[in-house]
Model the fold of this input.
Amino acid sequence: MANHLDVLRSEADAILVLQKRSPQSKWRPSAIGQREVWELAVGVILESGLYKRELAVELTCQRTLKPERTNYKFSLFLSELGRPRRVYQLDTTSAPICDEGKHDWPHQHVGQDRVVFGSSYPADFAAAIAHFCKATNISFEEAIESPFEFKLK
Done:
């Protein structure tokens, strides 16, 4: 479902085709308990090295215990006059709790277009971040790891 803050598909396509990179950022918790939520927000640098102030990446990972389910919402926004406008968003889950094609079924937004995945969709963190990076032409300066998998250094 498109909303009034989505960019036009043609505008989204023009932004998505640009090679971009983002500096590493740290996950920050926004909710812990029955619903664990982690967020990461970072700016975007164009291939030319130009910092593109009006573009931002926002990654949100949410995990619930009952039912055991992980959701990923990975977005690229364009800020105009202080208002974020959605260029691209991946909205997927480890376990859909609805029928294929319903609003909560894994999907992506490209500008004002909403594209539903069929029965094959990126269901885990690695697949979701890889899909997002490919769709948005973004590479991260350091690998982005799931906030749910802490590794000792």
Notes: Strands lie at 20-22, 28-31, 35-46, 51-65, 68-80, 83-93, 107-110, 113-116, 138-140. The mean pLDDT is 87.
